[in-house]
Design brief:
The complex is a heterodimer of chains A (417) and B (273).
Chain A (H helix, E strand, L loop, with lengths): L1 H6 L3 H12 L4 E9 L2 E8 L9 H9 L18 H12 L10 H15 L5 H20 L9 H4 L1 H7 L7 E5 L3 H12 L4 E5 L3 H11 L2 E2 L5 H6 L3 E4 L10 H10 L5 E5 L16 E5 H64 L5 H27 L5 H14 L15
Parallel strand pairs in A: 3-4, 3-6, 4-5, 6-7, 7-8
Antiparallel strand pairs in A: 1-2
Helix pairs in contact in A: 4-6, 4-13, 5-6, 6-13, 13-14, 13-15, 14-15
Chain B lengths: L2 H26 L5 H26 L7 H23 L5 H20 L11 H35 L5 H5 L3 H34 L7 H23 L4 H25 L7
Helix pairs in contact in B: 1-2, 1-4, 2-3, 3-4, 3-5, 5-7, 5-9, 7-8, 7-9, 8-9
Classes of the chains: A alpha/beta (417), B mainly alpha (273).
């Protein structure tokens, strides 16, 4: 945690940091992703800017600029090339999150990209990389179950409620307590469109504030039996050392509500609801241990989805690699055509004086045709590779080497990721 | 063995196959396309309807008279109701249990059809046919109510014991199951009540007395009483859920008793014919 705190960037700090990088001759593009669980710097280095040291040291030095420089290098990790892309995709898909598959990180990646765009540190590679990362994140969540099921106590409380009641919009939930857990649970029930939220608390001002926030009502905490009878769902989350809801209270409430089902969620330690209430007819009760079971089951299901997400990542990596190498196919072909034409023109120029104008025309056409035929085969060989990235790379290298096309005509000449 | 008897056994195999498809869908959630499942269930239902039509033509009366025919008709009615419900709700998680039961009914039907058909004097009487059709309709509704009750009790047990297994994951909510159970039972009771009235009226007209000593009539009255109590308690005292589900199971046991046990042990449909 100490380490993460030292390297955490607020949005403002991240903006300033990227602004500083925009003027760095060694960095062509950059993006900073700083969340509660990670701080990651993605860079495309400009080689012609002559990076002063190896990429790991360079990146570490950049990241630590203006911060505590005493951090151990072993606390950092560095990925280059396709591994860096894979890393970003894993983060976007939630595979690297503390809670596997959580969705918040994708929003944070989007925020980081927006900031890079605002600071103008994005470029063709960051743009492509991030849009692919968004797609990976989206696909992982829509094509697999990596993000399904509740994985927090507050969220897990909603799941059994949906298994008991068909339509939560017609149900009334009573929230006892005004702490963080109560608020989070209320948020999750609101997200599921609960019909009415009623808040009660020893300090009524807090209950009133929550009622206002969630558009709900308040109930007098001294009149719990009455509030209980009117509620379909009860969420208890206070620090009370005793049972706030006794079995007798539930019995009376069930009688008053003509035995209509009621769901009691006890997310307090020590418990706020007498467990004996759960044995009554049409009373369903859950406590922290029960909710933990739901969380464990959902996490285990998510873990089983990891290979599917990794397959999606590898699919997208393949596409990204193909796209990246396609950037050099066209320039290479253009260079080859240009080089052949230069040689042809130079050789023709040397002997052109020995021919009549008519002969020159014939000779010009003949040499053009000859050169065209000679370079047709290598061009075709490059183009016919299709999805076979390795062969394409091999042939591109071979052509550039044989025809001495090194660093000619490449749009991104002198730069690498 | 006749062609119809072989077809009855083949139908059982088909329903067993459909059950297997739904069981796989339930457990594994493999990517079987919805249209493929619909084609399979529709094809089996069509085959069953053709089978019952041929059976009716061969017998010279609707296939709802002998126990074997009745059970097969009951099976197709349940399957058709389920196809409709699945089409309307999109819920496929209950299909495995429904088709398991349909396959069982067809299996018993196939076994009963292997024996010699009982002779009924009153076949062809239109009032009696209405009585039989209403009884069958009521039995179908009770059967569906029973299946939803079983699902309710399983899910209820899992939630009560905080044992969140596959049923918890796949089945619809308790409230939905409770509602489906109640409406199916109410529809079944209405059909059964009409069947009893029509049957008693026919018996009065033919025999000049009510069949109060007929074991079949008595079990049907007991069945109506159980479902009547269930609906009364639901409306008067707010009963629902577990208690209603248990009553539905008890009621269906009475239905099965009147459909199978009485017929098998007495050898006739009613004591007077």
């Amino acid at each position: 945690m100490d380490l993460r705190e030292k390297l955490a960037f607020s949005e403002e700090e991240a903006g300033l940091f990227l602004g500083g990088l925009a003027g760095d001759p060694h960095v062509a593009e950059s993006l900073l992703l700083s969340t509660c669980n990670r701080t990651e710097l993605y860079c495309r280095a400009a080689l012609n800017g002559a990076c002063p040291d190896d990429s790991a040291t360079f990146l570490r030095r950049l990241l630590l600029k203006g911060r505590a420089a005493s951090l151990n290098p072993s606390c950092f990790y560095t990925y280059t090339g396709i591994d860096a892309a894979r890393r970003l995709f894993r983060v976007a898909a939630g595979l690297d999150s503390m809670i596997l598959g959580e969705s918040q990180v994708l929003g944070q990646v989007k925020d980081a990209y927006r900031l890079a765009c605002r600071c103008r540190t994005n470029g063709f590679l960051i743009n492509k990389l991030l849009h692919t990362a968004f797609r990976v994140g989206g696909r992982a969540r829509s094509e697999t179950e990596i993000a399904t099921g509740a994985v927090s106590f507050s969220m897990a409380a909603v799941e059994p409620a949906q298994k008991i009641f068909h339509d939560l919009t017609k149900k009334r939930a009573l929230v006892i307590g005004a702490g963080e857990m109560a608020v989070l649970t209320a948020e999750h029930f609101t997200a599921k469109r609960i019909g009415k939220l009623v808040f009660t608390n020893r300090t009524m001002e807090k209950a009133a504030a929550l009622a206002e926030k969630f558009g709900g009502e308040t109930a007098d905490c001294n009149n719990l039996p009455s509030a209980l009878a009117e509620s379909d769902i009860v969420i208890a989350s206070t620090r009370s050392p005793d049972y706030l809801i006794t079995a007798d209270m539930v019995r009376a409430a069930m009688h008053a509500r003509r035995n209509q089902p009621i769901f009691l969620v006890d997310i307090a330690v020590p418990r706020n609801i007498d467990p004996a209430a759960g044995n009554m007819y049409n009373v369903f009760a859950c406590n922290i241990d029960d909710l933990q079971q739901i969380i464990d089951r959902n996490l285990s299901r998510r873990r089983a989805e990891v290979p599917k997400v990794e397959t999606i990542i590898e699919d997208e990596i393949r596409e990204l690699v193909k796209w990246y190498h396609s950037l050099s196919v066209t320039p290479t072909i253009k260079s080859l055509v240009r080089r052949a034409e230069e040689i042809r023109a130079a050789q023709l120029e040397k002997s052109i004086k020995n021919f009549t104008p008519e002969q020159r025309e014939v000779l010009d056409a003949l040499t053009k045709s000859l050169v065209s035929k000679l370079i047709h085969a290598p061009i075709t060989k490059i183009r016919e590779c299709g999805d076979d990235i390795e062969t394409m790379l091999y042939r591109l290298d071979a052509v550039r080497d044989i025809f001495d096309l090194k660093n000619e005509g490449l749009e991104n000449d002198g730069e690498e990721t | 063995m006749t062609g119809l008897q072989i077809a009855a056994i083949f139908l059982f195999a088909l329903y067993a196959g459909v059950f297997a498809v739904y069981a796989i869908l339930f457990c594994k959630e493999i990517g079987l396309p919805v249209y493929l499942v619909r084609i399979i269930t529709a094809a089996v239902a069509v085959f069953h309807l053709v089978f019952l039509t041929v059976l009716g033509v061969t017998l010279g009366h609707p296939p709802i008279v002998a126990p074997g025919e009745s059970l097969s008709s009951l099976a197709i009615l349940i399957a058709l109701v389920y196809i409709y419900v699945e089409w309307r709700t999109g819920i496929r998680s209950t299909g495995a249990l429904i088709y398991f039961f349909v396959a069982c009914l067809q299996a018993v039907s196939a076994v009963l059809m292997l024996g010699a058909p009982p002779a009924f004097r009153e076949i062809g009487n239109p009032i009696l046919n209405i009585h039989i059709a209403l009884s069958l309709l009521g039995s179908t509704a009770f059967c569906i109510s029973f299946l939803y009750s079983i699902m309710y009790l399983i899910l209820h047990d899992e939630i009560k014991k905080s044992h969140f297994g596959i049923m918890y994951e796949k089945l619809p909510s308790l409230e939905q199951l409770d509602e489906m159970n109640y409406y199916a039972a109410a529809a079944g009771l209405a059909a059964l009540a009409l069947a009893i009235v029509v049957g008693f009226a026919w018996a009065w007209a033919v025999f000049g007395k009510l069949p109060v000593t007929d074991i079949k009539a008595v079990t049907m009255l007991a069945t109506a009483l159980i479902y009547g109590v269930m609906i009364f308690m639901k409306n008067r005292f707010g009963w629902g859920g577990e208690r209603i589900a248990i009553l539905s199971v008890v009621g269906f046991m009475a239905v099965l008793g009147s459909l199978l046990v009485v017929n098998v042990f007495t050898g006739t449909f009613h004591s007077y014919f």
